[in-house]
Amino acid sequence: xxxxxxxxxxxxxxxxxxxxxxxxxxxxxxxxxxxxxxxxxxxxxxxxxxxxx
Length: 53
What we know:
By secondary structure, the chain is mainly alpha-helical.
């Protein structure tokens, strides 16, 4: 009976570990998606300066 409790505890812990990793991964993807347009603007400014000179 004790092993059943340990199995439920490990399943519970594993569920929250997976949930935490999914939230962490989605947060990083959101940051990359937000950062990407700024990088494109900087590249565009560099291209304009290069063409002018």
